[in-house]
Amino acid sequence: MTVYLENNSLALDFSSLLSNTLISSGLEKLFGIAFVFTVETGFIPISLTKHFDSINSNIQLAKMINSLPLNSFWNQNNNIFTSQLVMSNQLCHLTGVPNGDSLIITLSHSNVSKCFLLENNNCNSEISIFSNLSIQFKNVVSFPIKCAILENTVGQYPCLYGIPEELIIIIITKLDPSDLYVLMRCCKKMYNLVVNNNSLWKKLVNEELKKVTNIQRNQIEHTITDWRNYYFELKRERSGRKKITIIRL
């Protein structure tokens, strides 16, 4: 069984990694899903720490895990699953405890721990289900622990970096253009998330074209590929500003 997830959700390599978990059944499958979501957040299996020392190259980490049996990264004892992971050189423990047909997932570091109930009936192969489940799990479990660790080791709370990228994209779609410009100046990551979000710029263009007839709008949609550039051209035309042409002599 293969699960294909959209680009703004899990990366293709994590989609493949998640597909490998679905080969398993029962509680092992549930723990495997939680393991994938945790690793995607940047936690490194302790057995790979000698070969991988970056929390930023999650795609590379997924490829390394894909080359090994997935269940080699955790231990199972009487249906209780445990795995040791590292974040910023700090040891963390991922634990799955049976609760009927479900699994109580706990990610802990030092005296901080977060729990999540992973249910069998919520873990089918539909794209939207796994996308939503990924957001919920990371928002409740893996990112809060990651934030706590980075706050202690780096000395600064990671702010927007502390929430899933999927949620940042949702927030971006709710902002006004003036707020987007402010966000783009925050850091390189926020700039890239805004600039490369073609659907966001298409939405802004459509808002500018509210007075245009549906026929004209449909014609535009078939001809535009770079919605961001078209948005700025449209804003410039509607404001009456002329396009500046630089002539090099």
From TrEMBL:
<dbReference type="Pfam" id="PF12937">
    <property type="entry name" value="F-box-like"/>
</dbReference>
<dbReference type="InterPro" id="IPR001810">
    <property type="entry name" value="F-box_dom"/>
</dbReference>
<protein>
    <submittedName>
        <fullName>Uncharacterized protein LOC112680681</fullName>
    </submittedName>
</protein>
<dbReference type="InterPro" id="IPR036047">
    <property type="entry name" value="F-box-like_dom_sf"/>
</dbReference>
<feature type="domain" description="F-box">
    <location>
        <begin position="157"/>
        <end position="204"/>
    </location>
</feature>
